Amino acid sequence: MNDMVKNTGLFALVALLIVITGLMQSWNTALLILNMGLISAIMALGVNLQWGFAGLFNVGIMGFVALGGLASVLIAMPPTEGAWSAGGYSIVLGLLMGAATIVAAVLTYQRMPDGRARTLAMLAILIGGFFLYRAVYDPGVDAVEAINPASTGNIGGLGLPILLSWPVGGLLAAGVAWIIGKTALGLRSDYLAIATLGIAEIIIAVLKNEDWLARGVKNVIGLPRPVPLEVDLQRDPEFVERAAGFGLDAVTASTIYVKLEYAALFAVVLVILLWMAQKALNSPWGRMMRAIRDNEVAAEAMGKDVTRRHLQIFILGSAICGIAGAMMTTLDGQLTPGTYQPLRFTFLVWVMVIVGGSGNNFGAVLGGFLIWFLWVQVEPIGLWLMSTLTSGMADGGLKTHLMDSAAHMRLFTMGVILLLVLRFSPRGLIPEK
Amino acid sequence: MSSSNPYQDDRGNKDRSITNPAGQGTAMPRSKSGPVTSAPGGPFLIGEAMTGGYGKGPDILHECTIAVDRGEIAVIVGPNGAGKSTAMKAVFGMLDVRSGRVLLDGEDITALTPQDRVVKGMGFVPQTHNIFTSMTVEENLEMGAFIRKDDFRDTMAQVYDLFPILKEKRYQAAGELSGGQRQQVAVGRALMTKPKVLMLDEPTAGVSPIVMDELFDRIIEVARTGIPILMVEQNARQALEIADKGYVLVQGRNAFTDTGKALMADPEVRRSFLGG
Amino acid sequence: MDLLNAFITLANFVIIPAIAYGSQLALGALGVTLIYGILRFSNFAHGDTMAFGTMITILFTWWFQHMGLSFGPLPTALLALPFGIAGCALFVLLTDRAVYRFYRVQKAKPVILVIVSMGVMFIMNGVVRFIIGPDDHAFSDGERFIISARTFREMTGLEEGLAIRTSTGITVVTAVIVVAALFWFLNKTRTGKSMRAYSDNEDLALLSGINPEKVVVVTWVIVAALATVAGTLYGLDKSFKAFTYFQLLLPIFASAIVGGLGSPVGAIAGGFVIAFSEVTITYAWKKVLVYALPEGMGPDGLVQLLSTDYKFAVSFIILLVVLLFRPTGLFKGKSV
Fold first, then answer.
1. Which residues span the domain enclosing C130?
2. What's the CA angle centered on A183, arms A182 and A188, to 5 degrees?
3. List of chain C residues whose C-beta atoms are within 8 Å of the C-beta of residue B139
4. pLDDT tens digits, chain B, 276 residues: what are they?
5. Subunits with 3+ C-beta pairs closer than 8 A to A
6. Which of B3, B11, B14 to mutate to test the interface with A (most CBs of A within 10 A)?
């Protein structure tokens, strides 16, 4: 009961912080924090599943989040006129041939006896396959990228409702997680950390460079939205009237209304995922996961296939990050591969999980909200602090430098918070039961 | 929760791309030594009426006494789980001794850390992980002499005389040697400090009978150089044959204590512990 | 003659840059591998340690330049390097004292230390950006070239030029000196051997009277020195930007793992393997092939296997291939 009170208090505190933001800054800022907080909480939930329940060290969260973003583009953007007939099919064919080459090489490795013949055969397949793949793939890419490069130049999407991209983002992330998990968890010792670190960078590199896919660094903007546009609301006399009833002007009311709708959508997803995570945790499956985590040798002796279980939970956790990624891109309304940075999308989520309480779903959710709030608010607080500190100083190089530097306080603060929690409350704010 | 200490909880993570558990130390009971007091008389080394266990765990030893005198070989034998190794670790300070004391050469050293006991002249050869596998034989010996500030080339020559095979393999990595040779490296390493007493924890564990005989011969040779030896042994019969004094432990208590010969002759000891 | 031209082109655009980059990676990987071997965790803050050391070096370089101090044809940064190392060592030791030591006393599991190093990474990242900002800084001065392409062409009469930049020369010479000194230290000195002993078997090292705290301090100082040297050389060769250094973490980890974590020789080999693969695979081979192949057989395209933006992918794929066939890395590391 005591724990209950404490935990409710912690959540109330975060809610209060957001309300204070609303009162002191603006409700738009507060709702922005709330929305990204909801998404962060979902990411933290996914990572908590992996680290908290199974001890899997995933440092490639950024990659899965980005895959979710890609799903949004592929699902919701309208198809580019003529892209498929121009080069889309040869791209797909090329990719399939690339995949076939790898499969053939792997099969050769498994089937042929060890020796020089095998090495040569594998080399021949890989090199031949590579050039074949490039021969089919490159013209397709060139053709697609040539179509109206200023606004599209990519394959486009399916033109489906963007909400559909959320589960699809999860699936996409799950697929990639399956490939990573198969290789990295199957090796004689685990190499998951380095594998995820590398894959995440590769996914970002693909997003940045493969213009045919999602326009690369030219960004995809103007994604369809699951909620009405603010301008449409402002033109709707009924809405304007209702807003006036609350004493709000139409512009403010419309931005707040849209954000509230997003918040409601996100909250629904969070609640569903949280409910599922809690169910999973307390199911026989969840108990087994924790049994494996706490004593792998014993679990293995009891006939549990540890690698398989680890693979399952790794895929599930990554899928959740993918869903969160699709949601985030939906909220932003654009995909900008240049903004994906490991500090923000991988390590910050780790801070959320550790600070909130690894192994506890509610802890992860709390961590998501709290750390996101601080991530956003440390900058203005830092600026305020700096201007207070430097108020007595003469204007000059140092003062300008200090004011400019205040923006970097947030990284520093995140590190300090992580270290303080690890030192004084190593199980996090809401510890595992 | 797998552990009460959150810092010990790694959630079963065994990701080798970020962590390296190989060679990591185990917790030592004490990090700082207490005072040493004078306690003249008695045997050269004695763990007297020791009661204690690991950390906050239950007591494993109960009023257990182990001693060795100058020029002697003392052997601790007993069934599995009798606390033989634990008794030796208690003498060496790797255990929380809650009552009883340890005396070395007329001094009470109960409050010393294992490291400080090494400085006081105790040589200890653990049962496992007792060599630096990635280092050469010679480097192992050098590391044995780490606390010495004087020239230790003489001691090294003595060790090589005692274990000629080590001289032959001095530039080979110790981890590449056979089981018996590794044990010789381990004993040699402990001898490098010129210890006043040598403690061996099951030196013949896991080696073939022939190698075992050879190791026992070497141990007797070491004893002849004048170093008292306290040894835990699984092979009770052979060990008692070379022992001046034998301790039979059962469930952390002294069951029988006598000379090696007398214990071998004792019908009850024979029946219970030597297989007839 | 054409073959010679092909070779010169190859040397100019592949071999020499890869040797320089490889040396930088090797020095970085050595630091990671030492921490892994002795403190038993992978230090996520290593890239930022490099950035911090380089930053101090740059600040001293600016100060020296301001005072009119110069190192003749060599970059002033070399004069500042010892100060950079000292500053970095000091910071790292303070971090150890304030942060890591507590966990050592607790005998914390290595994975906890990995998470701790994430926190340190954030802090160092913040500190570096706070002091020097997130922007690019080029701080190389002195002669730009040992041999410029033009001089080379005039000397040899070949069509293709071979340029050796001062920074490349300095990188290789410094790396050789630093690595030789490190190996001498680890294999020949009493302290160096005690570090290896501690890495091999902590308990036995304690029993042998080796002071773990001293081992740890020496390790951090060496790591700080390696990181600063690696970072400064990289900065002289390219330029300094906090974010780039953070991103070096992946190729550096890849180098250390490919070589075999915990093995210093492996770290060096891994650094060069990764560097050569990255440069070779992202290089456009057209020019070399045009020279090397008979008249008219030269390719039309650029013959670039992968675009340079995929260099991370290259280090990662090499890593994966090595691990699939040799799970302990090229040189048997600790990870069995």
1. 2-325
2. 110
3. 193, 196-197
4. 345 788 888 888 888 889 988 888 776 555 678 888 888 878 899 999 999 988 778 899 999 999 999 989 999 998 888 889 999 999 998 888 889 999 999 999 999 988 889 999 999 999 989 999 999 999 999 999 999 999 999 999 999 999 999 999 999 999 999 999 999 999 999 999 999 999 999 998 888 888 999 999 999 999 998 899 999 998 888 889 899 999 999 999 999 999 989 998 888 888 887 765
5. B, C
6. B11
ipTM of the complex: 0.93
Task: List C-alpha distances in Å: C270 to A172, B245, C207.
Answer: 33, 57, 34
Element (H, E) at B248: strand B245-250
Of B7, B12, B15, which has the smallest distance from its Cβ to A193's Cβ?
Answer: B15
User: Between B and C, how many CB-CB pairs are < 8 A?
Assistant: 131
- The answer to whether the Cβ–Cβ distance between B143 and C193 falls below 8 Å is yes
The structural domains of chain A, with segments of one domain joined by +, span: 2-81+147-424, 82-146
Q: Read off the CATH number of the domain in which C78 is found.
A: 1.10.3470
Which pair of tokens denotes residue A386? 């700096």
Tell me the residue length of chain C: 336
Q: Which residues of B touch A196 (CB under 8 A)?
A: none
pTM score of the predicted model: 0.93
Any CB–CB contact under 8 A between A202 and chain C?
Answer: yes
Among A256, A223, A224, which residue's Cα sits nearest to residue A239? Answer: A256
**Could B24 and C200 be called an inter-chain contact, meaning their C-beta atoms sit closer than 8 Å?**
no
Residue of B nearest to A360 (CA): B1
> Would an 8 Å CB–CB cutoff place C122 in contact with chain A?
yes
Tell me which chain C residues have a C-beta less than 8 angstroms from the C-beta of B115.
Answer: 206-207, 209
Q: Is residue C335 part of a domain?
A: no
The full set of domains in chain B, from first to last, is: 35-121+237-276 (3.40.50.300)
CA distance A284 to A305: 15
B13–chain A Cβ distance below 8 A for any pair = yes
- Ramachandran bin of B49, using left for φ above 0, alpha for ψ from -120 to 50, beta for the remaining angles: left
Domain count, chain C: 1
Q: Which residues of A touch C112 (CB under 8 A)?
A: 422, 426
**Fold exhibited by the domain A2-81+147-424:** ABC transporter involved in vitamin B12 uptake, BtuC (1.10.3470)
Does the residue C334 lie in any domain?
no
Residue C55's closest CA among C141, C123, C142, C132?
Answer: C132
